[in-house]
Amino acid sequence: MEQHDLIIIGGGPAGYVAAERAGHKGLKVLLFEKKSMGGVCLNEGCIPTKTLLYSAKTYENALHGDRYGVFGDNIRFDFSAMMARKNKVVKKLVAGVEGKMKMNQVTVIKGEAMIVGRGKEGVEVSCAGNSYKGRNLLICTGSEAFIPPIPGLKETGDKSGNIILTNREILELKEKPDSLVVIGGGVIGMEFASFFNSLGTKVTVVEMLPEILGGLDLEISAMLRNHYAKKGIAFNLNAKVVKVEGNQVIFEKEGKTETIESDKILVSVGRRPVIQGFGLENLHVELYKGGIKVDEKMRTNVPGVYAAGDVTGFSLLAHTASREGEVVVNNLTGRNDRMRYNAIPGVVYTNPEVAGVGETEESARAKGIKYRIAKLPMAYAGRFVAENEGGSGICKVLIGEKHGEVIGVHMLGNPCSEMIYGACMAIEQEMTIEQLQEVVFPHPTVSEIFKETIHLTPALSKGEGVSKRFKIK
Ligand code: NAI
To answer: Measured in Å, how far apart are the chain's first and last C-alpha atoms?
Structure first.
């Protein structure tokens, strides 16, 4: 049996990036993918949603062209054309990933891999009756939508009469629903809420917590919610869905039970690592909180077995996954590397976008970190004013009180998804505000807001009690 240096199960952002890097460094790599290369991110997550959101943004820009002196008649959209373009983009990028595999001499087997066990020489994996051996195994099986045990949801799951949808089925809709209830106002929920709101669907978000987008900067989440409330999305906060009956969503809010009827229901209450169905039990790998337990080098408790991406259940983001895959390959090829989670950006691709990295006020307070805040409206950047007629936004920088280093940056306003990496670098490199002030930013760009925020805020305010108006339990 042929021996491989690295066997990878799963061709998502963790698996395909690891395969590409390992192949590039000369390792003999074998990757198994049972569906389509690119995983959830490329096929039913990041890429298709961003493609659709761009269609929605283009439509809205056309509708409001008069703000920029541009006029058009009969501005309309074609839902099926948007969906067709989404499919085209996905297809093109899947082919791109396949091309990268070929270019780096990675052998890809389209099929379902089963771990047989681990012997002296490494791990054995079978697929369609054939056996394969690898000195090392990297598990990147990803995550799947979590369907909570809510009566009416559990029995019907995501397949019932096509009313209840997850992120997967909603991307296959043939026509725009007239109304949509989104259960869970997290990242997936808000991106789809934004998309359908732009197209005129009546959207209602039901969120269990006191604010949408938990984990993000609370002040910014509230600003985004207010923006969308003005655009017609109905928000029910502190509202827990307790039952679904046909097209009715029943939730409890402030001791009362309320019911909403809707054409479609999106379930977006989180995702769960995929740890079953591929023979993981044959390795006796240790688990933690439903995912595979790993150390900072992405090693499991079994020698030669690694895990990366959503399957670890830790930071369910494509860019985290890719970096984790790189950490595995770097350590396999002689570079001492470790995974760090303090500078992982989080982006919500609503319109306006939200982007943040590092500590939020809430997380800093919880950890007892002393910090100061610099905060400016986005309108301080000339380019933002030029391109966002009537738009508002904010940039907020958290600075460690002791050393003056940047510990968190949070923004609302386009195109903060493209700017946040600068803040990631500052946090990763533990840059102080003095060091950042010496960096030259291109003018005119919206990115200048980062530098301006640090410069112009006359006296940095102490970050205590900023979020008093939000009652967090
Ligand atoms: P999430 O964890 O972001 O949000 C789920 C929300 O559902 C939470 O706010 C929770 O309080 C709420 N919830 C739970 N049970 C509920 C109930 N019974 N009634 C009402 N609300 C309830 O999960 P989501 O949005 O499904 O996303 C899954 C993962 O995918 C996340 O880890 C996210 O980071 C990732 N993702 C990232 C994207 C990005 O980076 N732009 C885009 C899409 C997904």
So the answer is: 57
